[in-house]
Design brief:
Elements: E1 11-18, H1 21-32, E2 35-41, E3 44-51, E4 54-61, E5 69-75, H2 79-88, E6 92-99, E7 105-110, E8 116-121, E9 137-144, H3 147-158, E10 161-164, E11 170-174, E12 177-184, E13 196-202, H4 206-215, E14 219-227, E15 230-236, E16 242-247
Parallel strand pairs: 1-4, 5-8, 9-12, 13-16
Antiparallel strand pairs: 1-5, 2-3, 3-4, 6-7, 7-8, 9-13, 10-11, 11-12, 14-15, 15-16
């Protein structure tokens, strides 16, 4: 079994914060075929989404005044030093460390360009997330207003190495495994949209997923687009949380 320490610097979880938890449960069940387990906690109801291969991520209710969003969480051995280094490197701390169900501790930071990223200390082994299976996370990437600054920040903070490829797309790695990507914010994205991390979920058919999203009250923000690795589209759920769906060969990852 992989230890929590061995997952430092790797994606270990994703969370959805939404003002309409019941609506999100229904939407993603229809979109991905997820099934759920629920747990009452000190911070309210926490819902874990699952596919046959294992857990996918979590959902929780948040105040209606805050935007709905998916958050990528990366393993961190000890949160306090990483949080302190975040500030030293020009980032900001959006949520100081808090305890979560199962004994994990979580903090949320933002890189100097404004993209939010979660940090998780001691993720529960029983919640080791599925990766690459249909309905599960298959990739994460940062769309940044200042990719050069963001690239240096993540290299220094998380020990990531990076390699730049076609069109300036950067792939981060840790311990020989690909962690995620980084790219400049596309010109087609509205100027009001801040830097952010985007979660990709594997699907069997992108076109069908777009149809299901629309039928369930979601929105297609960017229609199906072919790339060398496969095909993807960008969606928003009924509460506005942005996600991507990807059709193609499994993407190596955690």
């Amino acid at each position: 079994m992989t230890s929590a320490r061995e997952r430092d610097g790797h994606v270990v979880w994703v969370d959805l914060s939404t003002p309409d938890l019941a609506g999100a449960i229904h939407f993603y069940e229809r979109l991905f075929g997820w099934h759920y387990t629920e747990q009452d906690t000190e911070i309210g109801l926490y819902v874990t989404a699952r596919v046959a291969a294992g857990p996918v991520g979590g959902m929780m209710l948040q105040p209606p005044m805050r935007p709905s969003a998916w958050t990528v969480l990366v393993g961190a051995g000890h949160l306090e030093p990483v949080v302190a280094t975040t500030r030293e490197l020009g980032g900001s701390v959006l949520q100081t460390p808090v305890s979560m169900p199962g004994g994990a501790r979580v903090a949320v930071i933002a890189d100097p360009a404004g993209a939010a990223l979660g940090l998780m200390e001691a993720p529960a082994p029983e919640l080791a997330m599925a990766w690459g299976d249909v309905g599960a996370v298959c990739w994460v990437e940062c769309l940044s207003r200042d990719p050069m600054v963001a690239r240096r920040f993540y290299e220094q903070l998380l020990g990531w190495t990076s390699e730049e490829g076609t069109g300036g797309y950067v792939v981060f790695s840790r311990d020989g495994e690909r962690v995620g990507g980084l790219m400049a914010m596309p010109s087609t994205v509205p100027e009001r949209a801040p830097s952010h991390w985007l979660v990709y979920f594997a699907v069997a058919d992108v076109a069908v997923s777009c149809e299901r999203a629309i039928a369930s009250g979601g929105t297609v923000l960017a229609p199906a687009h072919d790339i060398d690795e496969g095909r993807f589209a960008i969606l928003a759920d009924p509460s506005g949380a942005v996600l991507a769906v990807f059709e193609g060969p499994p993407v190596p990852g955690p």
